[in-house]
């Protein structure tokens, strides 16, 4: 059947070319020692890498969402440099009376908040804030596009539109496209690896 043929071609183009490429580079051992672990780890790694790439989780400033102004409503730590080190100064009440006074002062301040002070940002800060806004917009667009794609693929309309043939021999054109795309990309990578191997062998 065409469906079975597409699956076999896609799998052979992927895993078969992996084996052939490793033999061309005389390093086939990983195919026997870690191939099973790689196949079990692959689905999770794709999702993790996608989330890591889009959300930029290694950036600790990601949570600021572009807010670079220091909130002074309830106080904040003052950081000073001393002997080449950053030292934080925080006012902490030492007894109950001071704590009550601070609490009453905070209540009064919350009831009559001060107008936000206008802060001027330099060019570097503006550029950094724009990058954060861009990352946030990109992540939202990526999440929404995945949601729309999942809804479309799982809908009955899409199944009817991409299925051809009768009930005895139905054929999903979308899956065939995916399988042949995987085979084509694997062949493209294989051609590139072979070309690199040939250049490496005849390199002076």
Automatic annotation (TrEMBL):
Q: Does the keyword Transmembrane apply?
A: yes
Q: How does it sit in the membrane?
A: Multi-pass membrane protein
Q: Which residues are listed as membrane-spanning? A: 7-26, 38-55, 133-154, 174-196
One GO molecular-function annotation for this sequence?
Answer: chitin synthase activity
Q: Which domain of life is it from?
A: Eukaryota
Please give the GO cellular component terms listed in this UniProt entry: cell periphery; cell septum; membrane
Protein's GO biological process: chitin biosynthetic process
Question: Keyword Zinc, does the record have it?
Answer: no
* Listed InterPro entries: Chitin_synth (IPR004835)
Recite the UniProt keywords alphabetically: Membrane, Transmembrane, Transmembrane helix
Subcellular localization, as worded in the UniProt entry = Membrane
Which named protein is this? Chitin synthase 2
Give the originating organism. Answer: Coemansia guatemalensis
């Amino acid at each position: 059947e065409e469906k079975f043929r597409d699956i076999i071609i896609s799998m052979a183009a992927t895993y078969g070319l992996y084996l052939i490429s490793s033999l061309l580079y005389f390093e086939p051992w990983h195919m026997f020692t870690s191939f099973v672990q790689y196949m079990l780890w692959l689905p999770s790694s794709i999702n993790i890498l996608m989330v890591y790439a889009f959300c930029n989780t290694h950036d600790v400033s990601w949570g600021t969402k572009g807010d670079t102004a220091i909130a002074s409503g309830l106080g904040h730590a003052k950081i000073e440099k001393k002997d080449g080190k950053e030292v934080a100064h925080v006012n902490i009440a030492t007894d109950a009376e001071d704590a009550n006074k601070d609490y009453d002062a905070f209540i009064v301040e919350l009831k009559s908040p001060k107008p936000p002070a206008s802060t001027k940002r330099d060019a570097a800060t503006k550029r950094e804030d724009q990058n954060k806004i861009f990352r946030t917009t990109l992540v939202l667009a990526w999440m929404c596009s995945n949601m729309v794609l999942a809804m479309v693929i799982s809908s009955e309309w899409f199944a009817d539109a991409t299925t051809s043939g009768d009930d005895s021999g139905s054929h999903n054109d979308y899956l065939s496209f995916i399988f042949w795309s995987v085979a084509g990309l694997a062949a493209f990578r294989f051609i590139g690896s072979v070309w690199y191997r040939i250049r490496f062998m005849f390199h002076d």
